[in-house]
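Researcher: I'd like a candidate sequence for this fold, 72 residues long. If you have to choose between options at a position, lean toward the conservative one.
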């Protein structure tokens, strides 16, 4: 399952916003680009783990990769 990380910098605050559109609500705002990427990927893994624990995804059938792109 490739997950897209959309990354953009807020022109008003200078903070970095990272979002994974395939996982609604998976958004972080951080001071640095590296921090935003690390935290949104960690959040995505927590969301996927929660889905596994609650039977919303099948164990053994999931492969995850992250693809980063600048938001339009």
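Model: Candidate sequence:
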């Amino acid at each position: 399952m490739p997950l897209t990380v959309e990354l953009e910098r807020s022109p008003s605050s200078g903070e970095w916003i990272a979002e994974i559109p395939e996982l609604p609500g998976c958004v972080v705002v951080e001071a640095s680009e590296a921090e935003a990427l690390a935290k949104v990927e960690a959040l995505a893994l927590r969301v996927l783990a929660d889905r596994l624990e609650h039977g919303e995804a099948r164990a053994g059938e999931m492969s995850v990769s992250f693809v980063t792109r600048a938001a339009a």
